[in-house]
Task: structure prediction
Amino acid sequence: MTSFENPVAIRHFQSICDSCQDLVTRFHTPSDLKLYSDGYLQALRNCNSLELKDQEKLERLIERWILDPSSFINPDGDENKGFFDKKKI
Result:
């Protein structure tokens, strides 16, 4: 099961994804996104705002989401914008 039933977990997932998308448009690397998401998830752990099962599921999904290149394809279909802009290399 990869979906959340807890609306708070859904909002946190969307917040992390939106922030990572914004970071990608400013040419941050996957390791930058991982660092950002790790900090966000650690703050959630410290606050105990989610049940343990929801926290663990959120961590697994964010990890997979960041590693999946299709997560960062632009609406115009450009999958290279952000991480590996070939014009900059």
About this structure: Residues 7-25 form the longest helix (19 residues).
